[in-house]
Design brief:
The protein is an alpha/beta fold. It has a domain of about 250 residues: Rossmann fold, CATH 3.40.50.1100. Helices cover about 45% and strands about 15% of the residues. The chain is built from 22 helices and 16 strands. The strands form four sheets. It has a six-stranded mixed sheet with strand order 4-5-15-10-11-14, with helices on both faces. It has a five-stranded parallel sheet with strand order 9-6-7-8-16, with helices on both faces. The longest helix is centred in the middle third of the chain and has 20 residues. The protein starts with a strand and ends with a helix.
């Protein structure tokens, strides 16, 4: 049975999976969502014996129904290969009573690799299926990780170009170096004098500009997105929750059908939404624990039912979560609004015009699956230090936010359900913050790459290839622009 996708802002706009991946953003700024969540009707015994690649096929074929078996398996095979430094792709580590799902073993050492390794293959396959003649221009805003993972995925892919905007002063030194040293004739990286929300708003504006689309078409181009607003990013993220549950069962950590909690450090809401979709497929998940940093717009939303971005924007040690407009939350709001595109559009218009919206008491009932909380900068650092001293296991700042919120949840509720924590980045990506947390006096005077060596030594973990590659790499991308110059910058790159 074919699964169709609808726009969150217009129920009449319906497309196939490949069309949704190709377009990225729906007309009028809506996001594509499946009109039904398919059931995970596969026996756990069978699932528990599958490789990551086999699990990916079983999950994704239920969502991407207009891809043939050969097409989908080819995309999966090309994505989950030697780019990952562990055979199991997403290993589980038990530390201090929780299970850490390490999602950072890909080529850019962050969880975005899990979806962005496959998105280029899905996109090119989708373009062929839909007889697209234009070159695809991937236009993306990043808070640090999506940018490099997308650049790595699309570099030198025929008939594509990729343009990434990032907040010039809002990413870690390693994140920045990973992006500005990216090779590839079709890659463009731009620092903006602004924050991630401004970059994301600028990108969305270009997507929904009909006049610009016409100009692009005349020049032989069309936009698509590598952000998590693209359903081709979201579907592959569902896979690792299914895989982790099956592995916990295979390892004898849980019984068949036993419920687990899932904690996700959350900025743009895509990663936790993927866990929500997995739960709705039938995966036994009890609570979805949404962890925020000091930009706690989601915590406030879960607490009050009001989403309000009118607040001070904070730069934290977990920059990938320094976000005040969580784009993927729109997919959940649409669902809570009874899949009423018009009603959802009203909320999104209010967010655009007034910077806030309030959901109804009936809609708040639908949030019972979620628990939200946040950690301060001090709490995040203390957690990294405490976990290291207790277990020798070193986690990055984003994962520490998740672990800190999990601790608060347990203290508040007394719930001892076995818990999976999404570990979203390697500590090597945020060495300065991580080593300062462990012992700032001892390591504070060291340079970035000296810290890398020290971290490798104390964590007893080899320095990842992604770090070795940028150690002496040349800076290739030096463009910086103002927020209002983003469109002109794109036109310049495309010689339009």
């Amino acid at each position: 049975m074919e699964l169709i996708y609808a726009s969150t802002r217009n129920n009449e706009e319906k497309v196939t999976a490949s069309q949704a991946i190709l377009k990225g953003l729906a007309n009028g700024g809506g996001l594509y969502v499946p009109t039904a969540i398919p059931a995970l009707d596969i026996d756990l015994e069978k699932l528990s014996k599958m490789t990551y690649q086999e699990t990916a096929y079983e999950v994704m074929r239920r969502f991407l129904t207009d891809f043939t078996e050969e097409e989908l398996k080819n995309c999966i095979r090309n994505a989950y290969d030697s780019k990952f430094d562990t055979e199991e792709i997403a290993p589980l580590v038990k530390a201090d009573g929780a299970y850490y799902l390490e999602l950072f073993h890909g080529s850019t050492i962050a969880f975005k690799d899990m979806a962005l390794s496959i998105l280029p293959h899905l996109l090119i396959t989708a373009a062929r299926k839909n007889q697209v003649k234009n070159d695809i221009v991937i236009l993306t805003a990043t808070s640090g990780d999506t940018g490099k993972a997308a650049l790595a995925g699309f570099a030198n892919v025929d008939h594509t170009k990729i343009i990434v905007f990032y907040p010039k002063d809002g990413v870690s030194p390693i994140q920045k170096k990973q992006m500005v040293t990216q090779k590839g004739d079709n890659t463009y990286v731009v620092g903006i004098n602004g924050n991630f929300d401004q970059a994301q708003t600028g990108v969305k504006k270009m997507f929904s500009d009909g006049k610009l689309a016409q100009l692009m078409d005349q020049a032989g181009y069309q936009f698509s997105s590598a952000n998590s607003i693209n359903i081709g990013r979201l579907v592959p993220q569902i896979v690792y929750y299914v895989y982790a549950y099956a592995k916990l069962y295979a390892n004898g950590e849980i019984e068949k059908g036993e419920k687990i909690n899932v904690v996700v450090p959350t900025g743009n809401f895509g990663n936790i939404l993927a866990a929500f979709y997995a739960k709705n497929m039938g995966l036994p998940i009890a609570k979805l624990i949404c962890a925020s940093n000091e930009n706690k717009v989601l915590y406030d939303f879960f607490t009050t039912g009001t989403y309000d971005k009118n607040r001070e924007f904070r730069l934290t040690s977990s920059p990938s979560m320094d976000i005040l407009i969580s784009s993927n939350l729109e997919r959940l709001i649409y669902r809570l609004a009874g899949e009423d595109g018009e009603k959802n559009a009203e909320f999104m218009n209010a967010l655009g015009e007034e910077g806030r919206y309030e959901i109804t008491p009936e809609m708040r009932e639908g949030l019972k699956d979620f628990y939200g909380n946040y950690t301060t900068e001090e709490e995040t650092a203390a957690l990294i230090q405490g976990l290291y001293e207790k277990t020798g296991y070193v986690i990055d700042t984003h994962t520490a936010v998740a672990a800190g919120v999990y601790g608060k949840y347990k203290n508040e509720t007394g719930d001892n359900t076995k818990t999976l924590i999404a570990s979203t980045a390697s500590p090597f990506k945020f060495t300065r913050s991580v080593m300062d947390a462990i012992d700032s006096e001892k390591y504070g005077s060291l340079g970035d790459f000296e810290l890398v060596e020290k971290l490798s030594e104390i964590a007893n973990v080899k320095v990842p290839q992604a770090i070795e590659e940028i150690r002496n790499a040349e800076e290739l991308h030096k463009t910086v622009c103002e927020v209002e110059e983003m469109e002109d910058t794109v036109k310049k790159f495309l010689k339009m």
